[in-house]
């Protein structure tokens, strides 16, 4: 995957090459869990503009990863919680409560339930324009 170096300039993330954020912002990887999450997607109001907010100081060279704030997840109808179970080796696993597919990370399960699980909803995924 392409790598972009960005820096914070007056509260805005700027690509080192001066490219507009539209060219690279969609390449920020979804955080698999809260431990690796560096950014939170927040909205100024329901259906309004979406911003990425740093949750902590990000170190030079550290990858940016993002997940939804709870209010934004609720707005998009994305689960906000995922309860782990433990497999026979004692490792945490997250199981889809509709199709029983197993995931290693909580956000992978939440994304699956919302976007991919055919059994979770008879309704097609409604695309919200951001």
From TrEMBL:
Localization: Nucleus
Q: Which InterPro entries match?
A: SET_dom, SET_dom_sf, TR-Histone_Methyltrans, Znf_C2H2_sf, Znf_C2H2_type
Alphabetically sorted, this entry's keywords are: Metal-binding, Nucleus, Zinc, Zinc-finger
PANTHER family in UniProt? AGAP007109-PA (PTHR16516), C2H2-TYPE DOMAIN-CONTAINING PROTEIN (PTHR16516:SF4)
User: What single Pfam family name could you report for this chain, choosing any that match?
Assistant: PRDM2_PR
What are the recorded GO MF terms, alphabetically?
zinc ion binding
Query: Where in the numbering of this chain does the C2H2-type domain appear?
Result: 94-116
Could you identify this protein by its name? PRD13 protein
Query: Is this entry keyworded Zinc-finger?
Result: yes
| Recorded GO CC terms | nucleus
Source organism of this protein record: Oreotrochilus melanogaster
Keyword Transcription regulation present in the record's keywords: the answer is: no
SET domain sequence ranges: 1-69
